[in-house]
Amino acid sequence: MTATASTLIATEGVTKVYNSRRPDETVAVAGVSMEVGQGEVVVLKGPSGSGKTSLLSLVGCMARPTSGRIVVDGRDVAKLAESVLTEVRRQTFGFIFQQFNLIPGLSVIENVSLPLVPVTIGLADMRHRAEGVLRRLELGAKARRKVRQLSGGEQQRVAIARALINEPEVVVADEPTAHLDRALSEELLVILAELNREGRTVIVATHDPLVYEHPFVTRVLAMRDGRIETAS
Amino acid sequence: MQRFKILEYALSSLGRRKGKHLSIIAVYAFTISVLASILLLSHALREEASAILADAPHVVVQRISAGRHDLISTDIIDPVRQIPGVGEVRPRYWGYYFDGITGANYTVLGIDDRRTVELELLEGALPEAPGECAVGGGVSELREAGIGDELVLVDSRGVGVIFEVVGAFRSESNLLTNDLVVMSNADVIEFFDLPQNRATDLSVEVFNPKEVQTVAAKIKVLYPDTRPITRSEIIRTYDAVFHWRSGMVLMVFFSALIAFCILAWDKATGISAEERREIGILKAIGWSTSDVLELKFWEGAAISVTSFLLGLIAAFVHVFLLDAPALAAVVKGWSVLFPQFRLTPSLNLYQIFVMGFLTVVPYVASTVIPSWTAAITDPEEVMRA
Which of A103, A107, A166 to mutate to test the interface with B (most CBs of B within 10 A)? Predict the structure, then answer.
């Protein structure tokens, strides 16, 4: 597969095997080749265990493939040194996790600021950026609260704020509506659509029809047993 | 700047698990305080011994009879003085006195008009006339005898003798004077009923310090029933005794230290699922392995340095302000240090450095190394675990 000019992420025959050469060896992703263009909204859908979260981790540079190539912005990230890969992950991707993955003892603003802690940026600038992104997500008034004092929807918005603080090109979301009711899920989709309108690429792994049937979605890739079955 | 921010995050991270970290600090600081107490106490005692012996005679000549210290004849003073290199030779009159009233042992020491004993006085004067005495702080306190008061002691014939207290000692080292009762040589001879031409021992001054051993050997050859003891021998003996005693305690304590290290290692290697998940989150949102390790380094350093300093301060207070009640009996032994005394505060920086190195470094390592195994794995795997 050859990446086109607007291709931001491309995978070529990517495979991910867990517990390799052990009795519980699992092939989570089996030779997947795909492309994600700049500004697209791509949904990976499929049942539990189909490999969508593993593929999402691979394209988000959170894991290395067992074999195959992953090209992000023209660079084969599978071969990059850990420090460079971290840099790519930090600058290019913003992650929204299924479990929110916030740090419970920290306040909202501390959680949102976390990605900027190891970055060369002053404390005042860091606070300023965090406050800005929180205001945007209507969490400005709750910046000093501990995250465990927030509702599920608010925690999801904190996780989104944290994903956006580095102003990433790509927003990666793993089952973002799994723990939200319908109203909150729709609110989340509005936010994702808005991020996409700003020019950000969005990749979502989900089995929620509310997400993959949403009009802002560009492409849906259906996965089963670690492979892409259909694309629409 | 990012280093400062990681440090700030490390401190707030410790604050989030207050209970766990405070209990680690408490156990760690206690361990350090026991170790530091032993080292500080034995070091301070050796310093005390050196202070006492700094003005001691070059050679003390005792007579040994049937293996025991016995009175020595003053007739040998002139022949000893004839040995080349020998300066003054003086008889010393002193003895231990058990005070039945207080249950304490005093050292009764005679001085002559040439002031063989140079001791700094708090107030008053050294005894000159018969029936006068000067007392150390411990004696003064136990017998409630200040200047102008009377001190009644029972002599070797069982008769109570009244002495007038004319001076009370002070010194950089309480150990030096605390149990002293000083009176004139004539009064000591009378008090202990010493025979004519007999002294407790002789003090010998040697002009050239390098010849002390030679002079001591010559005295031994001339008078085989004597035991010449050089100042350096006494210092070495004190040193060996305190080393031996503190070594004994250290050996016992060492097992406790090992137990603590095992506990720390177990705690650190058994990195909790929560910590593992947090490392995964940090990596997923853009922290590198070195950032995570730096965070863990600061966490470990903050705990171990805080514990070390707290332990050191506790040991200092225990040894120098409270007189080491938990260890004194073991390290000091029963010897002449009775009654109470206060040690002069002194620190051996080398010992403190070694102690710090041997406790802080292993703890920091046991915090960082297990986190390293979590930090080098892909963040996705860490979060799945």
Answer: A103
Per-residue buried b or exposed e for B328-352, using 16+ beta carbons within 10 Å of the residue's own CB:
beebbeeeebebebebbeebbeeeb
CA separation, residue B204 to residues A153, A197, B41, B82, B259 (Å): 92, 101, 32, 12, 52
Q: From chain A, pick out residues whose CB is under 8 angstroms from the CB of B379.
A: 62-63
Task: Enumerate the residues of chain A whose CB falls inside 8 A of the CB of residue B4.
Answer: 123
- Distance (Å, rounded) from C-alpha A187 to C-alpha B336? 84
Looking at chain B, how many residues does it have? 385
Q: Chain B: nearest CA to A64, how far in angstroms? A: 7
Output phi, psi for A26, to 5 deg. -130, 125
C-alpha–C-alpha distance, residues B6 and B12, integer Å: 10
Closest CA to B299 of B363, B362, B374: B363
- Nearest of B112, B83, B311, B36 to residue B204 by alpha carbon: B83
Euclidean distance between CA atoms A204 and B24, whole angstroms:
43
pLDDT score of B330 more than 70: no
Tell me what pLDDT residue B32 has. Answer: 85
Whether B288 sits inside 8 A of A86 (CB atoms) is yes
More reliable by pLDDT, B254 or B336 = B254
Global pTM reads: 0.68
User: Are A84 and B291 in contact, with CB atoms under 8 Å apart?
Assistant: no
What is the distance between the alpha carbons of residues A109 and A115, in angstroms, rounded to a whole number? 11
Residue B341: pLDDT above 60?
no
Report CB contact under 8 Å: A101, B289.
Answer: no
Distances (CA, A) of B279 to B14, B176, B291, B306: 14, 59, 10, 24
Residue B116 pLDDT? 47
Q: In whole angstroms, give the CA distance from residue B266 to residue B270.
A: 6
* Sequence-separated (6 or more) residues with CB below 8 Å from residue B18: none
**Residue B339: cis peptide before it, omega within 30 degrees of 0:** yes
Structure tokens at A180: 């939200």
Residues, chain A, total?
232
Residue at B187: amino acid letter: D
Confidence band of A3 (pLDDT split at 50, 70, 90): very low
Q: Which amino acid is at B145?
A: A
Going by the DSSP 8-state scheme, the letter that residue B194 receives in this structure is: P
For chains A and B, CB pairs below 8 A equal 79
